[in-house]
From TrEMBL:
InterPro entries: Pro_4_hyd_alph_FE2OG_OXY. It comes from Mycena sanguinolenta. It holds the Pfam family 2OG-FeII_Oxy_3. The lineage of its organism: Eukaryota, Fungi, Dikarya, Basidiomycota, Agaricomycotina. This is ARM repeat-containing protein. Gene3D superfamilies: q2cbj1_9rhob like domain. Residues 151-234 form the Prolyl 4-hydroxylase alpha subunit Fe(2+) 2OG dioxygenase domain.
């Protein structure tokens, strides 16, 4: 950068002419490789395991009394009388549609635990196990809070179509499910995040075991139909309680850290030549405008931001970091032969839908910032702030994922009109 001198004298840094010599290479490509490297983050986007040495909860439901475990068909029938069909989020509303979600639920305030050891077990043992699995920084003084959300009863035919959990209150970053002893078959839980997919078959230990399931709130998941028996589960919200999340400690000798440090130092000293003033790195997880801040970052995202901040502080590099919600739109000509389910515009109006089609030819892409904050979550003006498509990294991320929404304008005469793919993503803006 012009006018910037990182070292005050030759005594502090020798070989200045060699250090400031322009280097070969593409900054964006080097950053993409470096930021996608393994920084020793061992967290998972979803986890399942059988819990050991579990106290009996002494589960009780208002109006019914104690619920015996393992759950018997008789108690399941009685419990159903005190439950209601579970809704699901559709836009800003909660909707009941058994084609999408067929499950019975009991509200948290109607659920009691007669064994005082149960809440302590969840707060201490379960929370620690969950944060370790998800790769979240943990200490007893700032441990996340685990609040009961619902008691869920699945019967034969019960299911839940693919969906993402909503942020049920500020600070919620993960869902925790404890499946109570109740024999059933089916009900596999399928989770996916980006290009990763996993299936958990929790029925294997259902007769007598307590099974833990957990995932970040933006992980897509579904519950396949129960084929026999009943599945009884406690659903919890995992909520941040700390104002700031301490980044994990990483050895200075780590090759990935050294590589990233060199790239940032070269960018800071304008050694790449024709380099951008900023890049936008697409984060692993999606965040709402309310949860967009460093303290709410999840897993690898929190780890990566911690690494970057630590490097810049140690090396005295003049980078600025912001978090942003963006809408990325790719426009083109649809392939009519591969598309069988179209939703046309009504009344001449274009509207977003979830129909699927492939593009025959791409025309252009556009990225719009919808929300911009500092790492502390302080809102910033988006006026005059834009992202060029070439400054988005990884470059191929949208080629590997399905769009969140699609738009089709309908036929224009004898030719198909333009179509668009829309992606909602969260990014880390790195600028000099």
């Amino acid at each position: 950068m012009e006018g910037h001198t990182e070292f005050e004298s030759d005594e502090e840094f020798s070989g200045e002419e060699e250090e400031l010599e322009e280097i070969d290479g593409d900054l964006r490509e080097d950053l993409e490789d470096a930021l996608s490297a393994d920084f020793a983050f061992a967290g998972q986007y979803a986890h399942s395991s059988v819990l050991d040495v579990v106290p009996l909860p002494g589960l009780s439901v208002d109006g019914m009394g104690v619920v015996g475990l393992p759950l018997s068909p008789r108690d399941a029938d009685i419990l159903r009388l005190h439950a209601k069909q579970a809704p699901f989020g559709h836009g800003d509303k909660s909707v009941v549609d058994t084609a999408v979600r067929k499950t019975w639920e009991v509200a948290a305030d109607a659920v009691k635990f007669k064994n005082p050891e149960w809440d302590k077990f969840v707060a201490d043992i379960v929370v620690k196990k969950v944060v370790q699995a998800l790769g979240v920084s943990y200490s007893p003084a700032i441990a996340p809070r685990c609040d009961l959300h619902k008691l869920l009863l699945y019967e034969t035919g019960s299911h839940f179509a693919p969906h993402q959990d909503t942020e049920k209150e500020p600070g919620m970053f993960a869902t925790v499910i404890i499946i109570l002893p109740s024999e059933y078959t089916g009900g596999q839980v399928r989770v996916s995040h980006g290009t990763k997919k996993t299936t958990f078959d929790t029925a294997l230990s259902s007769a007598t075991g307590f099974t833990l399931l957990t995932w970040y709130t933006d992980v897509k998941h579904e519950v396949k139909p129960i084929t026999s028996g009943f599945r009884l589960a406690l659903s919890y919200k995992l909520i941040h309680t700390a104002h700031n999340t301490l980044p994990p400690s990483i050895p200075d000798s780590d090759v990935a850290i050294q590589t990233l440090t060199t790239i940032l130092r070269n960018w800071n000293n304008s050694r790449y030549g024709d380099e951008p003033s900023q890049v936008a790195y697409i984060l692993d997880h999606e965040y709402s405008s309310k949860s967009l801040k460093r303290a709410s970052l999840k897993g690898a995202d929190a780890h990566l931001v911690g690494v970057l901040v630590r490097i810049c502080k140690k090396e005295s590099l003049d980078f600025k970091f912001h978090l942003a919600c963006v809408e990325h739109t790719i426009s083109g000509t649809p392939d009519m032969e591969s598309s069988s389910d179209w939703m046309y515009s009504k009344g001449g109006k274009r509207r977003w839908d979830r129909s699927e089609f492939s593009m025959e030819e791409f025309h252009n892409g556009d990225t719009k910032i919808t929300h911009l904050v500092t790492l502390d979550g302080v809102p910033c003006s988006t006026r005059g702030v834009s992202i060029d498509e070439e400054d988005l990294i990884p470059k191929t991320v949208f080629e590997e994922e399905n769009p969140d929404y699609t738009e089709y304008a309908g036929y224009m005469g004898n030719e198909p009109g333009d179509a668009s793919y829309l992606y909602n993503r969260s990014v880390l803006l790195i600028s000099v």
